[in-house]
Amino acid sequence: MKIIKLLKNFAYRIVQKKAVIVMAAIVIPVMVAAATMLFSQKSDTKDVVAFVSEESVTFPENDKLQIDVVSGRPETAELLLGNYDYVVEKKSDNTYTVTTVMKNEHDTELVKQFFNDGGSLNGYGNKDNDRDIGSTVIGVIIMVVIMQGVAITGLYPEDRNLKTLKRIMTNPVSEGQYILAQGIFTFCLLYVPTYIAVGEAKVALGSQFSFSFGMLALLLVILVAFTTAFSLFISSIMKQNIQLAASVIAIITSILGGCFVAFSPNNIILKTVCAVIPQKHFMDMLDGIAQGKGLYNFMPQLAYILFWILLLGITGVFIIKNTAKKAAS
Amino acid sequence: MNFLKVFKFDFMNIIRNPMLLSINTIFPLVLLGAFGLVSSGNFSGDISSYDYYAVTGMVLSGMLVSMTVTNTFMEEKVKRGNFRLAYFPVSKTTMYLSKLLSTFIFASISYSLIILAVQYVFGCFLGGNNIFYFIILIIVLTFFGCSMGTMLCCLLKSEEKANAITPIVSLLFVIFGSVFIPVGHLRGIFRSIAAFTPLKWVTESAFRVIYNQDFSTYFYTLFGLVVLSLACIFVSQIIYRPEDYV
């Protein structure tokens, strides 16, 4: 009952802060839409080759490369800006050199063979770590979800700074109940817009999106639960610049956790650092499920994320208990 | 005189705040290192992923400085000070301009040092002897980031709103500014949108200057950024009212 009263209190107050609600309801869908559109267009575009030649040459049509015959060598900046993916030049001994920047060695080698020996482009662009579009969309929004979660939990540091917490604690409400109510509140306010947005992306993408609605619901529960625990934790340990710190942590851990690009470092130290980041295990799970494995294959990952949720949550509760005691005395 | 005093306080506030200090010194380095590391498998040829993300990572930092402005402008402690300032015979221009300039000068110094360190200590290529053109570009971009942050603070009038909205506006600029995805890989409507974002001009000019010594778009970009910054300051001057921040 007390928890319901606390929840009611939070709900009344958050309505006053329209910005937070509006942001949660707008930012997440906008980011999901942007991610969806950006990444869904990627799959049906060809890579562009600049073929440097004075004469006009024609190449057989293929679905992997678009070959533009240009008279002058394009500058390096054109490769960096992505206007061309490869520059192919004829050397004096009639072989071709392939210059590229943002293509992996496997693909570059295939292109080299294609021009030099007329090799086939089979297997071009099929990287092992190429990600399913559903996991890509979820991966991209993890960062935004974490930032938003901390914004929604903003009532808690406010309670502390404005000494409302002290007044709440003089009532027969325990710290555990308070933090539980705050957690439920953040969870609900974050889960609903995220699920709707990703669900719409799924409808828009159709069969390309490999997760079912039920699986999506479950995966987002894990993600949002983790975010909630993290928000409570960071709001407990920091006094000011909470949002800023959370944004920084969200950006760095999401990059290193492979939320944007799947990668596996060779360096042992970096490998360990990345293995600690919970997002990495979440992404591993997403990738596996997208390939058709069942959730039960990922018990270690689930357990690890659960461990983080409990660790962050319990530390948060512990700190708030101390703060509340200090506030009361 | 008054301006200098207020400026000094704002400047010291940034340095005394460990979070703001580290976000403008260590964060850009970690950011470009992380990007470089993650995408190293997707690069082959003479230019490494670290060279690429040294450029775009700095561009990203120059934009995200708007988050620091929000915090120098609106933080609970600073707000009280601002309120007291409002009672003094200090013009309102002084109040917001000192926040803008203190962040700008702090960030410019720190970013310049970072860029020099990235080239000469970490060995990424940022233009060799042309590195100063890149530094100037990032400094002017930082000025735009600060002006935009100030304008958003004046528009939104509360710390929470500003803190929630500023990173998102910056991130949208970043998405279309070929920081994550090279602009040439965008198609259709995204390409048209990207053409209007200042970050795209900056990355394009930066790569041209660094790799080709091609200055054809460089000065237009600088000019465009200065005009946009002045527009942001102009808007701030019109809508900023110290009494809104009580």
Oligomer: heterodimer
Our count of domains of chain B comes out at 1
| Rg of Cα set of chain B | 18 Å
> With helices defined by DSSP (H or I, 4 residues minimum), what is the helix count of chain A?
13
Number of strands of chain B: 0
Structure explained in plain terms:
Chain A has 13 helices and four strands. With 329 residues, chain A is of the alpha/beta class. Chain A has a four-stranded mixed β-sheet, covered by helices on one side. By secondary structure, chain B is mostly helical. Chain B has one domain. In chain B, helix 4 packs parallel to helix 7 and helix 4 runs antiparallel to helix 8. Chain B is globular. In chain B, 53% of the residues are buried.
Task: List descriptors.
heterodimer, A: about 325 residues, alpha/beta, 13 helices, about 65% helix, elongated, B: mainly alpha, about 0% strand
Task: Provide a brief overview of the structure.
The complex is a heterodimer of chains A (329) and B (246). Chain A is α/β, with parallel strands linked by helices and 329 residues long.
